[in-house]
Specification:
Keywords: Copper, Electron transport, Heme, Iron, Membrane, Metal-binding, Mitochondrion, Mitochondrion inner membrane, Respiratory chain, Transmembrane, Transmembrane helix, Transport. The protein has 137 residues and is mainly α. 67% of the residues lie in helices and 0% in strands. It is built from 5 helices and no strands.
Length: 137
Protein backbone atom coordinates (compact mmCIF):
# COMPACT_ATOMS: atom_id res chain seq x y z
CA UNK A 1 0.00 0.00 0.00
CA UNK A 2 1.53 3.26 -1.03
CA UNK A 3 0.98 6.59 0.64
CA UNK A 4 -0.23 7.90 -2.69
CA UNK A 5 -3.08 5.38 -2.76
CA UNK A 6 -4.15 6.16 0.80
CA UNK A 7 -4.07 9.90 0.23
CA UNK A 8 -5.94 9.73 -3.06
CA UNK A 9 -8.73 7.47 -1.79
CA UNK A 10 -9.26 8.56 1.79
CA UNK A 11 -8.20 12.20 1.65
CA UNK A 12 -8.75 13.37 -1.92
CA UNK A 13 -11.56 11.56 -3.70
CA UNK A 14 -14.30 11.39 -1.08
CA UNK A 15 -13.83 14.37 1.26
CA UNK A 16 -12.41 16.91 -1.17
CA UNK A 17 -13.82 16.04 -4.59
CA UNK A 18 -17.26 14.89 -3.49
CA UNK A 19 -17.64 16.66 -0.17
CA UNK A 20 -16.07 19.93 -1.17
CA UNK A 21 -16.39 20.45 -4.90
CA UNK A 22 -19.49 18.30 -5.26
CA UNK A 23 -21.39 20.04 -2.49
CA UNK A 24 -20.46 23.36 -4.05
CA UNK A 25 -21.37 22.49 -7.64
CA UNK A 26 -24.50 20.39 -7.14
CA UNK A 27 -26.61 23.17 -5.56
CA UNK A 28 -25.74 25.36 -8.54
CA UNK A 29 -26.78 22.64 -10.97
CA UNK A 30 -30.05 22.12 -9.09
CA UNK A 31 -30.80 25.87 -9.09
CA UNK A 32 -30.42 26.27 -5.31
CA UNK A 33 -27.44 28.64 -5.01
CA UNK A 34 -28.22 29.57 -1.41
CA UNK A 35 -27.32 26.07 -0.16
CA UNK A 36 -23.55 26.11 -0.76
CA UNK A 37 -21.35 24.47 1.85
CA UNK A 38 -23.77 22.87 4.29
CA UNK A 39 -22.71 22.02 7.85
CA UNK A 40 -21.57 18.42 7.35
CA UNK A 41 -19.34 19.59 4.55
CA UNK A 42 -17.55 21.86 7.00
CA UNK A 43 -17.20 18.94 9.42
CA UNK A 44 -15.78 16.84 6.60
CA UNK A 45 -13.15 19.46 5.84
CA UNK A 46 -12.11 19.83 9.49
CA UNK A 47 -11.29 16.12 9.75
CA UNK A 48 -8.92 16.17 6.79
CA UNK A 49 -6.11 18.43 8.20
CA UNK A 50 -6.02 16.40 11.41
CA UNK A 51 -5.80 13.16 9.47
CA UNK A 52 -2.97 14.57 7.32
CA UNK A 53 -1.15 15.68 10.47
CA UNK A 54 -1.41 12.22 12.03
CA UNK A 55 -0.26 10.58 8.81
CA UNK A 56 2.76 12.90 8.68
CA UNK A 57 3.63 12.38 12.35
CA UNK A 58 3.42 8.61 11.92
CA UNK A 59 6.40 8.78 9.57
CA UNK A 60 8.58 10.32 12.27
CA UNK A 61 7.63 8.03 15.17
CA UNK A 62 10.09 5.16 15.68
CA UNK A 63 10.70 3.43 12.35
CA UNK A 64 7.85 5.03 10.46
CA UNK A 65 4.99 3.30 8.75
CA UNK A 66 6.34 0.57 6.52
CA UNK A 67 3.97 -2.37 6.53
CA UNK A 68 4.86 -3.87 3.19
CA UNK A 69 2.14 -4.39 0.62
CA UNK A 70 -0.85 -4.07 2.95
CA UNK A 71 -1.87 -2.61 6.28
CA UNK A 72 -4.55 -5.25 6.80
CA UNK A 73 -3.41 -6.92 10.06
CA UNK A 74 -3.98 -10.62 9.25
CA UNK A 75 -1.90 -10.35 6.08
CA UNK A 76 1.13 -8.58 7.53
CA UNK A 77 3.78 -9.58 9.98
CA UNK A 78 3.36 -8.56 13.61
CA UNK A 79 6.78 -6.90 13.39
CA UNK A 80 5.33 -4.13 11.25
CA UNK A 81 2.11 -3.55 13.17
CA UNK A 82 3.33 -3.37 16.74
CA UNK A 83 4.79 0.13 16.84
CA UNK A 84 2.97 3.41 17.58
CA UNK A 85 3.63 4.75 14.08
CA UNK A 86 1.25 2.18 12.64
CA UNK A 87 -1.36 3.11 15.26
CA UNK A 88 -1.11 6.77 14.22
CA UNK A 89 -1.41 5.86 10.54
CA UNK A 90 -4.45 3.64 11.12
CA UNK A 91 -6.11 6.31 13.26
CA UNK A 92 -5.35 8.80 10.48
CA UNK A 93 -7.17 6.53 8.03
CA UNK A 94 -10.11 6.30 10.42
CA UNK A 95 -10.33 10.09 10.54
CA UNK A 96 -10.17 10.19 6.75
CA UNK A 97 -12.93 7.57 6.63
CA UNK A 98 -15.09 9.58 9.02
CA UNK A 99 -14.55 12.58 6.77
CA UNK A 100 -15.61 10.53 3.76
CA UNK A 101 -18.74 9.29 5.53
CA UNK A 102 -19.71 12.83 6.56
CA UNK A 103 -19.16 14.04 2.99
CA UNK A 104 -21.22 11.16 1.56
CA UNK A 105 -24.12 11.68 3.96
CA UNK A 106 -24.12 15.37 3.20
CA UNK A 107 -23.92 14.75 -0.50
CA UNK A 108 -26.73 12.18 -0.54
CA UNK A 109 -29.01 14.48 1.43
CA UNK A 110 -28.07 17.37 -0.85
CA UNK A 111 -29.06 15.45 -3.97
CA UNK A 112 -32.27 14.08 -2.43
CA UNK A 113 -33.56 17.24 -0.76
CA UNK A 114 -32.44 20.19 -2.85
CA UNK A 115 -34.74 20.56 -5.79
CA UNK A 116 -37.72 22.68 -6.63
CA UNK A 117 -41.11 21.42 -5.47
CA UNK A 118 -42.28 21.14 -9.07
CA UNK A 119 -39.08 19.54 -10.33
CA UNK A 120 -39.26 15.74 -10.33
CA UNK A 121 -36.32 13.42 -9.89
CA UNK A 122 -36.36 12.71 -13.63
CA UNK A 123 -35.40 16.35 -14.32
CA UNK A 124 -32.32 16.42 -12.07
CA UNK A 125 -29.09 16.72 -14.13
CA UNK A 126 -27.12 13.51 -14.60
CA UNK A 127 -24.01 14.74 -12.73
CA UNK A 128 -25.78 15.12 -9.35
CA UNK A 129 -27.54 11.80 -9.86
CA UNK A 130 -24.29 9.96 -10.66
CA UNK A 131 -22.47 11.48 -7.69
CA UNK A 132 -25.44 10.72 -5.46
CA UNK A 133 -25.28 7.06 -6.48
CA UNK A 134 -21.52 7.07 -5.86
CA UNK A 135 -22.02 8.58 -2.41
CA UNK A 136 -24.69 6.01 -1.61
CA UNK A 137 -22.42 3.15 -2.62
Amino acid sequence: VTTHALIMIFFMVMPVMMGGFGNWLVPLMMVMPDMHFPRLNNLSFWFVPNAFFLLGVSGFVEGGVGAGWTIYPPLTSIDFLSDPSMDLAIFSLHLGGASSIAASLNFASTVANMRHQKRGFHKIPMFPVSLGITALL
